[in-house]
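Self-study notes.
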Amino acid sequence: MSPRRVSAGWMTGAVPGSILTSGRESDRNRGAPEIQRRKASDMTDSPRSQSPPDAEGIASAARKAAKKGPPPVHLWDPPFCGDLDMRIAADGTWFYLGTPIGRKPLVKLFSSILKREGDDYFLVTPVEKVGITVDDAPFVAVDFEREREREGEAPGQRLTFLTHVDDRVTADAEHPIRVERAEDGTPRPYLTVRAGLEALIDRKSYYRLVEIGETETVDGVEWFGLRSAGVFFPIIEAEEMRI
C-alpha cells in the first residue's frame, strides 16, 4: 500500500439533480439532467439492455435492505454489474462523478453496504455489486474513548473508536490496531472496523494513544504498543522509542 497523507474532516457539496444533492437545487444546477433510477422493467436477460449502475439505484436498494437493521452484506453474493464513478478520498470524503457527497446520512448509507474483496472495494445490494475506488482506508477514526474493563472482565482498559460515519468500534482481537510506516517513517495506524474494512486513525487521536501506550515483551522483543480488551497491539519496538 503506497503511503498517503490523512487529515480528518468533511467536505460539503452536491451532485446536481439527484438524491445526492444537499439542500435545494441551486439556480446554477436547475435544469441539469437527473440521474435515472434503475427500473425493474429496464432489466432483461440481455446484458446489453441493462442500465449501467448508478448511485440513486444503489441507494434505493440499500434503504430497502436496511429497514430491518444493518444490511447483512456478508450474506449477499450478487453478480458484478460494473464500476461506479465513486471514490472515497484518504480523508474519508465520498465523491460521486467527481463531486463531494454533501449529505452525511447518504454517506452513512453507502458505507453500510461497503464490502472488501482482496484489495478491491464494492457497494453491494441483494441484486447487484458495483466497484468503487478507495484511496486509502474507507473509514477515518476521528476520536476514541478510554474505558475501564467492565465487571467480571480481566483488569485493563477498552479503547472505543468513533469513525467519521459514526460507527463505534472497540479495539479487540476481532478489531485489531495495526501500524504501517510511510516511506519517510511516519506511522500510519489502522483499526479494523468490520470484515476487512479499516479506519485510518487520525493524527490527533494517534498522538493521544501514544500518551497512554505501554511496553510488553512479544516473542522475546520489547515493544511499545496499546492494550485494549485484554489484547496488546504492538506499534513500534521499544528500542526505537529510546533513540
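Second protein, same conventions, sequence then structure:
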Amino acid sequence: MWEILDTCLELSKARDYVEQAGLRDLLDDIEAPMTLLAPTNDAFEQLEQSPGGSELLADDEQLRDLMERHILQGRVRSGELFADEELETFGGDVLAVDLENETIEDATVEAPDLEEGNGVVHAIDLVLLP
C-alpha cells in the first residue's frame, strides 16, 4: 500500500503525515491487510489553513490519533465501505457512513479501490476529524 502513497502526487501529504505519525510500518506490513481512507492534498491544505489545524498536525500524539481514524483493518473495497452505517477504525473510533449519499463523515471517496501490497487506498476529499 505504501507504494500508492509514495507514487500518487495527490496523496503526498497523506504519505508525509502517515510517516510522521509513525504508521508507515503498519501500512507496509504484508501480514496485516489494511485499508486507508487517504485525504487528498487539498483536504490536508484545508485543515492546515483552518484554526488550530497546523497545531493538530504538528502534535505527534494528536496526529497519530487523527491518522488512525483513517485506517480500517482488513481489505475494504468500495462496495463494502457503504454496506453498513458505521465503520470501525484501527484506532477504535466509529465513523458514520451515509448510505444514501455514499459519504463517510461527510467525506466523498474521490478515487476508490487503489490496491497494492497489503491493502486498499481510497482517496477522500476531507480529513476525518474526531
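Instructor comment on the second fold: The longest helix spans residues 12-20.
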